Amino acid sequence: MKDPQIRAYRPFIGPFDPCEPKEIRTYLVPPQLFIPFQPMGWPQYSPAEALRLGTLWPALYSPYTSAIAKEKGV
Quick check: 42 and 27 in contact, CB under 8 A? Predict the structure, then answer.
């Protein structure tokens, strides 16, 4: 399953770059960029779940994975 919030691009790799280049870079596009307003009647998380996830509405949830967790494969 492809995550619609993750985008990728290929950066320019110069012949004199001092470090080994990453051929593909990724970044996260937050969902609130594509929702101009919050319609009435949206489904909501329970208060405890909303505090754990950081948002009340499932449509605005965007998971966060730290770079350290990605390196460890967690």
Answer: no
Q: What is the mean pLDDT of each run of 10 residues along the chain (74 residues)?
A: 81 90 88 83 94 90 72 61
Strand, coil or helix: what is 26? Answer: strand
Q: Tell me the C-alpha distance between 14 and 10, whole Å.
A: 12
Q: Which amino acid is at 9?
A: Y
> pTM, whole model, 2 decimals?
0.58
The residue with tokens 């509405």 is: 57
Determine the 3-state secondary structure of 7 from DSSP: strand
Write the CA distances from 35 to 4, 21, 31, integer angstroms. Answer: 14, 35, 7
